Amino acid sequence: MKAFKDAGHLFRLASVFLVGGVLFLVFRGVLVPRSFGQYGHYRGNAIKETAALPISYAGHQVCQSCHTDILEVKSKGVHKRVACEACHGPLAKHADDPASVQPAKLDTAVLCVRCHEANLAKPKTFPQVVSAEHSGGAPCETCHQPHSPAIVAVAGGGQ
Amino acid sequence: MQIPVEGFMYPNEVELQWSVLIVLYPFLTGLVAGAFILASLERVFMVKAVKPTYRLALLTALAFLIVAPLPLQLHLGHPERSFEMYLTPHRSSAMAMFGFVYLWYLLAVLVVEIWLDYRHDIVVMSQGTTGWKRLVYRALTLGSSNISERSLHIDERVGWLVTVIGIPSAFLLHGYVGFIFGSVKANPWWSSPLMPVVFLFSAMVSGIAIVLLLYMLMCRIRREPIDMGCVDTVAKYLFYIFIIDFSLEMLDLIHRIYEADESFRSLDFMVHTRLFLSQVVIQILLGTVLPILLIGVTQVLKLADKQRKRIYVVAGCLTMIGIFAMRWNVVIGGQLFSKSFLGYTTYKMGFATREGLLTAVVLTVLPFVILWVLVKLLPPWPEKNSALSSVAVAAHGAD
Amino acid sequence: MNMTRRQLLILLPAAAVAWKSILAGTPETSPNYNMTEHWWGMLVDITKCIGCGSCVRACQMENQVPDGYFRTWIERYHVSDFDIENPKVDSPDGGKNGFPPSTLSGGKDFFVPKMCNHCADSPCTQVCPVGATFVSPDGVVLVDQKYCLGCRYCVQACPYGCRFVDPKKETAQKCTLCYHRITKGLTTACCENCPTGARQLADLKNPNDPIHEFLKTHAVQVLKPYLATRSKLFYYGLDGSVR
Q1: What is the pTM of this model?
Q2: What sign has the CA pseudo-torsion B113, B114, B117, B118?
Q3: CA torsion angle B297 B298 B303 B307 (round to 10)
Q4: Residue B394's pLDDT is what?
Q5: Can you list the positions of beta strands (E) in B197-351?
Q6: What's the pLDDT at A106?
Q7: H-type helices in C37-177, by residue range?
Q8: b/e map A66-89, b = 16+ CB within 10 Å
């Protein structure tokens, strides 16, 4: 091969590249995760892993199984669509083992005003008050039962 | 995380995602691409005048290319997973190209071209030196000591071909970085078809400028006279490409101002306030207009050698600062305003942190250290190198 | 809301088994869930949002969202008269603890909950260099926490600002549409805890989902439609000033 007589060094260079290329392919075969490409250009197992994350909020349906009496009251008031955990916080652990996890006592001074403090940006039809003027400092539960907040006063009328 | 915000920003936007290291990365790869284009001027376009800078340009490109991945690795949340870009590159992502384009350019273009050009010297030095140096050179020969006329001729031809392939490869190496920014439709400061082109031309400007500066510096160190024909030609090319670069940037600016789309007022305000110093003063005035005028003067008037040298040094330094400022304005500027166009944040650059100023400075200095090693290992001007001369004498004497 | 509740009651036994074992620590997905049968989205009714921040708090607790970062947040808009190109917007701590009283009067004020739009043509998944973020077969944009490099390109590419990088995990994070809940027949934490029903999970592939009826009878909007992301977060009552 007269043409390649003085090109030996180029062949050596090419073989270095070839070895490198082969090594790369071997590494690739070993290191690409097995489930990659299962559904698309990503690890298929990632979907399962995401779906398996722990749950903190049990969901209002679960509260029903033990707290039927409260839910009975709530279903008759204007808070019927408000989820229990919206006020009481995440309680999946409590639902799982009621005795061991006790939900914290709620502070109505913070809780109620978050929704009901008057604000120009809230929809006009939404019940809102300027809390400082409304109750003169008295806590909300003085007059309103949170599970059914309408005031059923003997004298004076309702909510 | 108390970052001062003016106006309104989406809550997750307040903290900048890409730091000064991401400013540094396109700066470094830009120097690589630019230096290589200068080298290709001699090799492919037969501009003989710039031959003295040929080898230096290649070594400069290599030194910067070796450092280029470091700012990226330091920036990543999980650098140990960066090899995933080689395993499962996502073909729709410009960033996924990085691994392969980088490797291709480093190995198939730059290393091969340097090897082919230096092979004769490598073989000679492998026979002439002793100790660990000898081992290094022998390894570099890949076991072949053939430096016959014909083999060198083959090297020349193949080297020419590699340079030809190298030019579009250099464009790709830096152009894709421009595309990384230019293709983000969510960010109107970045999203533009001009972005890769602007990046490329500014890269060529910075690459040519740095080789010009390094050549003049090294001649000084070696106590050699500067080849004025060479630097005049290099400066001339710098001038032409600078004009194109400036035109492109002005075109983008004028287009923005004229069309005044929904992002314009927000961006305009940003440029006039937070980005005024780095964009208007440093990038445009000091970093582009002034160097163009300075070199323009040398093209129009007949100035003495000493005066031209001074102008080239000043213009070169200003250019480097200006091009760094350009990268800063693109990367940092693109993150200072809210995508709601209603507010601005502030870039809080750490100092001795993983992505801080100190790190950026070290990474900027490192390529020069590597270049110094490369110049010692593969001298660009072997005729004056004592080791090679004595080797040549010794080898000749041994025959 | 009635239809959704009926569905939930039907799925409850399976869901109960599933979530009980989740809480006991053994991960498993609901055996009834088939990805190809669902195409998830969400409906937000601006006219009902009271900016209470329940959704932000619920999301934070359900998904361990770090402080200062938000998978969902609420913005308050003030639009004076007809100048819809210059709204005044604020989002104190993402609206997590509600909003202080407005200081601006005159004009129009409203709240806008924001979150990941779970775009069908998602620009964030397009730019991920390794395939760590993707659109699942059931239309949820997720991040593979074990594969993400933390390069932050996806955060840059999201036009809605819904992504961030967790400072401890150093990977990209975003709303997962509570994938771990919706695959078990539960609704998302934000929808669960919204007291006014302003947020509603929608399964666009389910013929019985009330979203279909809603879309036929109401004018709905998406954010930044000109970017053609095919967002699946539908708003009712979204003002033209909303960014």
Answers
A1: 0.90
A2: negative
A3: 100
A4: 44
A5: 343-344
A6: 87
A7: 54-63, 123-127, 153-157
A8: eeeeebebbeebebeebbbbbbeb
Contact between chains at B144 and A31 (C-beta distance less than 8 A): no
> C41 is written with which tokens?
């989205």
Report the distance separating Cα A86 and Cα C193, nearest Å.
Answer: 5
User: Tokens standing for C75?
Assistant: 């913005």
Q: E-assigned strands of chain C?
A: 40-45, 72-79, 88-90, 108-115, 133-135, 141-143, 164-165, 172-173, 199-203, 220-221, 233-236
Q: Which residue has the tokens 């490598």?
A: B122
A82 to chain C, closest Cα gap in Å? 4
Is the sign of the CA dihedral C114, C116, C117, C123 positive or negative?
Answer: positive
Q: Given its phi and psi angles, is residue C98 left (phi above 0), alpha (psi -120 to 50 degrees) or beta?
A: left
Would you call B96 an interface residue with chain C, using a CB distance cutoff of 8 Å? yes
Give me the residues of B, 144-203, that contact A with CB < 8 A.
Answer: 144, 146, 148, 150-151, 154, 158
DSSP character string of A7-42: -HHHHHHHHHHHHHHHHHHHHHHHHS-TTBTSSSSS
SS3 content of chain C, % helix, strand, coil (to 5): 30, 20, 50
Query: From CA B335, how far away is CA B274, in angstroms rounded?
Result: 12
Q: What kind and span of H or E run contains B6?
A: strand B6-7
Residues from chain A contacting residue C192 (CB–CB below 8 Å): 57, 59-60, 83, 85-86
Residue C107 exposure: Cα atoms within 13 Å on the Cβ side: 20
Beta bridge partners of C98: C96
Element (H, E) at B7: strand B6-7
Average pLDDT of every residue of chain A: 88
Chain C residues closer than 8 Å to A58 by CB: 19
Nearest CA to CA, how far is C42 from chain B (Å)? 20
Q: Of B128, B48, B111, which Cα lies nearest the Cα of B385?
A: B128
Residues of chain A with Cβ-Cβ distance to B144 below 8 Å are 8-9, 12
If interface means Cβ-Cβ distance under 8 Å, which residues of chain A face chain B? Answer: 5-10, 12-13, 16-17, 20, 24, 28, 31-32, 36, 41
Interface confidence, given as ipTM, is 0.91
Per-position pLDDT tens, chain B of length 399? 589 999 999 999 999 999 999 999 999 999 999 999 999 988 888 888 888 999 999 999 999 999 999 999 999 999 999 999 999 999 999 999 888 999 999 999 999 999 999 999 999 999 888 898 899 999 999 988 888 999 999 999 999 999 999 999 999 999 999 999 999 999 999 999 999 999 999 999 999 999 999 999 999 999 999 999 999 999 999 999 999 999 999 999 999 999 999 999 999 999 999 999 999 999 999 999 999 999 999 999 999 999 999 999 999 999 999 999 999 999 999 999 999 999 999 999 999 999 999 999 999 999 999 999 999 999 998 655 555 555 444 444 333
Comparing CB atoms, the residue among C1, C23, C180 nearest residue A50 is C180
Assign A59 to helix, strand or coil.
coil
**Contact at CB, A7 and B151, closer than 8 angstroms:** yes
Give which of A126, A106, A72, A86 is closest to C191, Cα–Cα.
Answer: A86
Answer whether C189 sits within 8 Å of A57, measured CB to CB. Answer: yes
Query: B-contacting residues of C 16-45, CB under 8 Å?
Result: none
Q: Please give the DSSP secondary-structure letter assigned to residue A145.
A: B
Number of Cβ pairs closer than 8 Å across A and C? 161
